[in-house]
Structure formats: structure tokens, C-alpha cells
Amino acid sequence: MVADEKLMLLGMLAFQRDTLRWKCSGLTPSQLAYQHAPSELSLGGLLKHLAVVEAAWVNLTFAGGIESPSWKSQHEGESEGWTFRTAGADSPERLFTWLDESQRVTELVVSKASTLDALSQDTPYDEPCSLRWILLHLVQEYGRHLGHADLIREAIDGTVGI
């Protein structure tokens, strides 16, 4: 409840990730691939999407690619929305591994950053963005998709909470 800004942002992001893991835990591959009509979203798709979004912003955009994400070869040639369309073919272990990988690299990058005002190496909107903006964007992205995860999980087995 009391920490510096960097630790608070990482704490909020960790809470969002943990909530996503909880929403997706204990499910079979077919349950992770379940799509609640009329949407094409699935819990597996959300796991993959958020792992990719986090790695893309922190590892690739901000840090310039300190590691090659293990999903990167799957992305080549794919169009927007590929994470949602392709997640059904990925095992639960792979999906959770990608999320863990993204988290580990984010923690490393943020720990090495001298300040949250540090600017990205890549310029996604024709100008660099700060690490602060990226972390806030990730908290927002996870939060928005956790609402989707709540509804999908409830439709699968009635589990609600957090």
C-alpha cells in the first residue's frame, strides 16, 4: 500500500496477471479454447494476447528486444487478432509459459531502468513513449480484458470472484 511509483506499478501489474492466471487455472485445453457467442474471445486467447502485448510493449518497444520472445516466430505473417485466432492450438502449458516469460522480462527491464521517464527505443506512435506510460497502458489492458475473462469463466463452469 506504500511504495515508490515503480514498485506500485509493478504490484498492480502483478495483481492483474495473477487474477488472469486464477481465471484460467484448472481448465482443460478445450475449456481454455471455449468461445462464448457472439464473441470469438477465449481464455486461452486472452492469455496469449496479454503475454504478447506485454512482451511487445516492454521487451520489444521499450527495451529494443533484449530477448526474442518464444512466440515471435508464430507471429510472423499473421494479421491483427492473431493471438485470439491461434490460441486454441496452443497447450495450456505453452500459454502460461509465455505469460511467465513476459512477466520475467518485464521485471528485468523495469529493474534496470533508471527512471520511469526513460523513453522507448522504438517509436510506436512516431515518437518514443515513457516506461511509465507503457506500464500504465499494461495495467489498463489487463484490467479491460479481466472483465472479459470473468464472463467467459462464469460461462464455462460458473466460477466467479476476484
Main attributes of the structure:
mainly alpha; 162 residues
Question: What does this protein structure show overall?
Answer:
This protein has about 160 residues and is an all-alpha fold. The protein has one domain (about 5-155): dinb family like domain (Four Helix Bundle (Hemerythrin (Met), subunit A)). The chain is about 65% helix and about 0% strand. It has 7 helices and no strands. The protein has helices spanning about 5-25, 30-35, 45-60, 70-75, 80-85, 90-110, 130-155. Helix 1 runs antiparallel to helix 6 (about 90-110). The longest helix has 27 residues, at about 130-155. The protein is globular.
Concise account of the structure shown:
The chain is mainly α. Helices cover 63% and strands 0% of the residues.
Question: Helix and strand layout, with pairings?
Answer:
Elements: H1 5-24, H2 29-33, H3 43-62, H4 72-75, H5 82-86, H6 92-112, H7 131-157
Helix pairs in contact: 1-3, 1-6, 1-7, 3-6, 3-7
Identify the overall geometry.
globular
**How many H/I helices?**
7
Category by helix and strand content: mainly alpha
Q: Say what oligomer this is.
A: single chain
Distance between the first and last residues' Cα: 18 Å
